[in-house]
Specification:
alpha+beta, five-stranded antiparallel β-sheet, five-stranded parallel β-sheet
Length: 825
C-alpha cells in the first residue's frame, strides 16, 4: 500500500488479490479522479512484467465503448503499475454469485458484451481471454467494459504450440478448441466468440457447459464433446437464446458467428420479442445479418475424407498395442502436414503425445535434424507438466537409459533439464558404439510408447533426410518390441527416385515385420476447389463454379497454391466485398487479363516484394537460416538487437508470411530470445524469400551469417552450435581468402565431424571431415597437428562408411608424413 501512495494515489479498497498481483480502487491524491490500479506481486516473474507492459501497449490510445480505458503506466521499483479509468463496476464473475439478473438484464449484458468484442476486433485486436472475471459491469448505469488484455494479440492468426493443459495461456474453462493447440487450426478472432458463448452459457444457465478437475479431460470436452443445450440445462432459458449460444460454441470457427454485429443483432431480436411477450413462442432465423467483410478461407481439409479415415484408423490400431509406419506422399503444397495434423483430436482422447520434426533443404548435413526437433518438442511438452509428473518422467527415462544418458543428451541437450547431469560414457569401438546408440534410443522411445499414452512421431520432408536419420527410422520401426507408436513419414514423391536412400530404407522396412500404410495425396478436383471457393465467399456453389474453374486452371488443384491464389485476388482487389449488397463480387475477365502467375514461388515473391525493404532483408536472412528459426539467431545475422529485429520483422507476421510458434513472441521484453521461435508459412514461401537473394550474393549472405554466428558463440556453446555455423561457412568456403580463416573452418568441420561420429552419423561425419581435408590437404609442414588429426579422422570416417580402399590410402599417407613414433602408432 505504501508504495502506491508514493505514486500519488490513495487506496480506497482492494478489489482482487491473486497469485500474480493485486487490483485496487483508488483516488488520485491531487484530485477526485477515481482510478483502478493493477499491480504485480513484490517479485514478479519476467513474463508477468512483460504481460502488463503488453496490455499497456495494446490499449494505450484506444477509446472505444466496452474497452477498458488505460490512463497511464507508472513504474515503481522497476515494476509496472497500470492506471485505468474506474467505471465503478464489478466483475461478472462476482455478480454471478451476488446478484440475480432478470432475463432482460441478461439480454442487455449479452448485447453489450457482443458489441464490446466487436469493438475490440475493429481495433485489430483478438482478446483471447474472454470470461466473466474479465468483464466489468456497472448494474446501475448499465456500463460494461472488457479488461485484461495481457495475452491478446494484434496478429490476424496465431499458431499455438502443444503444451500441458495446465500451462495453456487463457482460462481452461473458457478456452476455444483451437487455443488448446490440438485442433489442427490456427487461432483467429473467432476464438473470442467461443469464449463469449461459454460466458453467456454461464450467464443464462448459472452453470458452465463443461467442468472437470482433470485438465486434459477439459481439453477433450472443448475439442470433441458437444455441450448440452442451454435450454436443456435450464428450462427458463428461451430456445432462441440457447440457439445463439450453441452456435457461438461450435467446435469449428467456420460454424460460429463470423461478425460481432451478427451476434448483437440476433440478441436484439430476442430482446424485442421479450418486450412483445413472444420470446418463448416465436423463433428467429439465426445469423441473417452475420456478414463478415474479412476474407477468410475455411481451415478445413477439402477432398480428403478417405485419407483422414485411413490415418485415424491407423491411430486407432496403434492405440490398441500395435506399431505402424504411415507414409504420406505428394507434391509440395498438396496438404501432407495438414492431413497429418488431423490426428490431434483422437490423441487427446487417448492422452497420447504428438511430436514432430521437419528436415530442411539447407541443413542436409546436420545429422538427426528433424529427429532432434521432434524430441526437443517432446522435452518442452514434458517440462510444462507438473513437478510430480516431471519427477515421474525423470525416473522412467533414467531407468530406461541407465548409465548411458549422456548418449541421448549429446543429441537432445534439452533432456538434461529432465534427467539431470549424466556421467560420461565409456569409449567404445565403432560397431559397439553404434549398437549402444541404437539400444539407448530404442529404450527412450519405449518410455513414451505405452497404452496410457501412445506416441505419434511425425517426420516431415523425408526427401531431405540424412543417412543417420534414415538408419534411426529403420532401427525403431524394425523393433518388434515397440508398441503404441505411429511413425508418420511424409515426403515429396516427385523428388524421390529409385536411387534415393529413402527408397532403400523403405524397401528394408517392407522386408521386416513393420506394418506400412501409404497415403498418396493427389490434386483437388474441381468439385473440391469449388466447395473451398463457395464456402470462402459464403456463396451458393453454382454461383462460384466459373471462378473455381479459373482457380483450378491456375493452380492445378494444389491446395496451398489455391488458397494463396485466392488471397492474392483479394489483396489485389480482384475480389471485393460490396457492403450495400452484403456480398462478394469479382470480374473473371479482369482476373484473366491481369496475367497473374501460375507459379506459386513467383506469387509468394511478389507478395514479399510489397513489404518494406527492412522486412524483405530480414526474410532473406531468415530463409538462409532455415524453415524454422529463433529470434536470437535472427538478431545475430541481422546485426541488431532482438527488440529492434522483432519490430522490423512485425510486418512479415502481420502478413502471415511468417508464423510465430507458440505465444512467447508476445513477451519479447521477457528476454528469453532463443525461446521465441518462428517458421515460414510454407516451404514455398521460404523458397520465394531465398530466391530474392541475387545468385551471386547467396554465398556472401551465408558467409556473413556464419561469421556472425561464430563471433557471437562462446567457447562453451560452440560444440552445441557447430553444425549451424559450418552449415553456412561451408556453402561459402570458396570466398575465404585469409589462411587463418580457412584453418579455423577446417577445425570447425573437424569438431562437427567428431560430434556427428559420436552420434553414429557416419555419412555426415565424412562429408564434414572432407571439407577439413580439402582445406588442409598436404599441410603437414605448415600445420602439422591439425593436419594429422584431420587425416586420422578422415581415415576413420572412410572406414566407418565402408570405403576401405580410401581409408587404407589415408592411413598410408599418415604413416608417410607422421613425424614421431607415437603418431605412427
Amino acid at each position: 500500500m505504501e508504495k502506491i501512495k508514493i505514486l500519488g494515489y490513495e487506496i480506497d479498497t482492494e478489489l482482487h488479490s491473486g497469485r500474480r498481483g493485486r487490483t485496487y480502487r483508488a483516488i488520485k491524491s491531487d484530485g477526485n479522479e477515481k482510478v483502478i490500479l493493477k499491480t504485480l506481486v513484490e517479485y514478479p516473474s519476467a513474463r508477468d512484467v512483460a504481460r502488463i507492459k503488453k496490455e499497456y501497449e495494446v490499449l494505450k490510445g484506444i477509446r472505444s465503448p466496452g474497452i477498458v480505458e488505460i490512463l497511464a503506466m507508472e513504474i515503481y521499483n522497476e515494476s509496472p503499475i497500470l492506471v485505468m479509468k474506474d467505471t465503478n463496476g464489478t466483475s461478472l464473475a462476482k455478480l454471478f454469485k451476488e446478484k440475480h439478473f432478470t432475463l432482460q438484464e441478461k439480454l442487455e449484458i449479452a448485447i453489450q458484451l457482443s458489441e464490446a468484442i466487436e469493438n475490440i476486433h475493429h481495433q485489430e485486436v483478438i482478446h483471447l481471454d474472454i470470461k466473466p472475471s474479465n468483464v466489468i459491469y456497472n448494474s446501475e448505469h448499465k456500463d460494461l467494459n472488457v479488461i485484461d488484455f495481457g495475452i491478446s494479440t494484434r496478429l490476424s492468426r496465431e499458431n499455438p504450440s502443444i503444451t500441458s493443459p495446465d500451462k495453456l495461456e487463457g482460462t481452461l474453462a473458457y478456452l476455444s478448441p483451437e487455443q488448446t493447440g490440438r485442433m489442427n487450426r490456427s487461432i483467429d478472432y473467432r476464438a473470442d466468440f467461443y469464449s463469449l458463448g461459454i460466458t453467456l452459457y454461464e450467464l443464462f444457465t448459472g452453470e458452465l457447459p463443461f467442468y472437470s478437475q482433470d485438465s486434459m479431460e477439459m481439453v477433450h470436452f472443448h475439442i470433441a464433446v458437444e455441450a448440452e443445450q442451454a435450454y436443456v440445462k435450464n428450462s427458463e432459458v428461451p430456445q432462441n437464446i440457447s440457439n445463439i449460444i450453441y452456435k457461438l460454441m461450435s467446435k469449428k470457427a467456420e460454424d460460429r458467428y463470423q461478425a460481432g454485429y451478427g451476434i448483437r443483432y440476433d440478441f436484439q431480436q430476442c430482446l424485442e420479442l421479450l418486450h412483445r411477450g413472444e420470446l418463448y413462442s416465436q423463433s428467429i432465423d439465426l445469423a441473417t445479418r452475420d456478414v463478415s467483410e474479412r476474407f477468410q478461407i475455411p481451415q478445413k481439409l477439402y477432398g480428403r475424407g478417405k485419407e483422414i479415415g485411413k490415418l485415424l484408423s491407423s491411430f486407432d490400431r496403434i492405440s490398441n498395442g500395435s506399431s505402424e509406419l504411415m507414409i504420406v506422399k505428394g507434391y509440395s503444397g498438396i496438404g501432407k502436414s495438414a492431413l497429418v495434423n488431423e490426428v490431434h483430436k483422437p490423441i487427446v482422447e487417448k492422452r497420447g503425445y504428438f511430436i514432430s520434426g521437419k528436415f530442411d533443404q539447407f541443413k542436409r548435413d546436420i545429422p538427426y535434424n528433424a529427429i532432434i526437433l521432434a524430441f526437443q518438442d517432446l522435452a518442452r511438452q514434458l517440462l510444462t507438466e507438473s513437478e510430480s509428473k516431471i519427477r515421474h518422467w525423470k525416473e522412467k527415462i533414467g531407468k530406461a537409459v541407465g548409465s548411458n544418458g549422456q548418449v541421448i543428451i549429446d543429441i537432445i541437450p534439452e533432456l538434461e533439464f529432465i534427467i539431470g547431469k549424466q556421467p560420461a560414457v565409456a569409449k567404445l569401438g565403432p560397431t559397439e558404439s553404434q549398437n549402444r546408440f541404437n539400444m539407448v534410443f530404442k529404450e527412450l522411445v519405449k518410455v513414451f510408447t505405452a497404452k496410457e499414452h501412445p506416441l505419434v512421431l511425425f517426420i516431415d520432408d523425408m526427401q531431405w533426410a540424412d543417412s543417420a536419420s534414415l538408419k534411426f527410422t529403420e532401427n525403431i520401426l524394425s523393433d518388434g518390441e515397440i508398441e503404441y507408436l505411429l511413425f508418420i513419414s511424409s515426403y515429396r514423391d516427385n523428388e524421390v527416385d529409385v536411387t534415393h536412400p529413402l527408397v532403400s530404407t523403405l524397401d528394408l522396412l517392407k522386408k521386416s515385420d513393420c506394418t506400412i500404410q501409404t497415403i498418396k495425396l493427389t490434386p483437388l478436383a474441381l468439385s473440391d476447389i469449388n466447395l473451398l471457393v463457395s464456402e470462402s465467399l459464403k456463396r451458393e456453389a453454382q454461383s462460384t463454379f466459373s471462378l473455381s474453374s479459373l482457380v483450378l486452371k491456375k493452380t492445378n488443384g494444389n491446395p496451398f497454391f489455391a488458397s494463396e491464389f485466392l488471397k492474392s485476388l483479394y489483396e489485389n482487389k480482384f475480389l471485393n466485398f460490396v457492403t450495400n449488397l452484403g456480398d462478394w463480387q469479382w470480374d473473371e475477365e479482369k482476373i484473366e487479363s491481369a496475367g497473374i502467375t501460375d507459379n506459386v514461388v513467383e506469387l509468394m515473391s511478389t507478395k514479399i516484394q510489397k513489404l518494406s525493404q527492412k522486412t524483405q532483408k530480414i526474410l532473406q536472412l531468415a530463409s538462409c537460416i532455415g524453415n524454422r528459426f529463433d529470434l536470437k539467431t535472427l538478431a545475430i545475422v541481422y546485426q541488431n538487437t532482438e527488440d529492434q529485429t522483432a519490430v522490423d520483422f512485425e510486418e512479415a507476421l502481420q502478413e502471415s508470411i511468417i508464423q510465430p510458434i507458440g505465444d512467447s513472441y508476445k513477451y519479447i521484453s521477457e528476454g528469453k530470445y532463443e525461446e521465441i521461435v518462428y517458421r515460414f508459412l510454407h516451404d514455398r514461401v521460404q523458397q520465394a524469400a531465398y530466391a530474392l537473394i541475387l545468385e551471386e550474393e547467396k554465398k556472401i549472405v551465408h558467409l556473413t551469417i556464419g561469421r556472425h554466428l561464430l563471433q557471437k558463440t562462446n567457447e562453451e556453446e560452440l560444440e552445441e552450435n557447430v553444425f549451424n555455423i559450418v552449415n553456412h561457412l561451408n556453402i561459402a568456403k570458396e570466398l575465404l581468402e585469409m589462411e587463418e580463416e580457412k584453418i579455423q573452418l577446417a577445425k570447425l568441420n573437424l569438431l562437427a565431424a567428431k560430434k556427428a561420429k559420436t552420434s553414429n552419423a557416419f555419412s555426415s561425419a565424412l562429408n564434414l571431415i572432407n571439407v577439413s581435408y580439402q582445406i588442409l590437404e598436404n599441410s603437414w609442414q605448415s600445420n602439422y597437428e591439425s593436419t594429422y588429426e584431420i587425416y586420422l579422422h578422415k581415415a576413420e570416417c572412410e572406414y566407418l562408411n565402408n570405403q576401405f580402399e580410401q581409408a587404407e590410402n589415408i592411413f598410408d599417407s599418415i604413416l608417410r608424413n607422421a613425424n614421431n613414433i607415437e603418431d605412427k602408432a
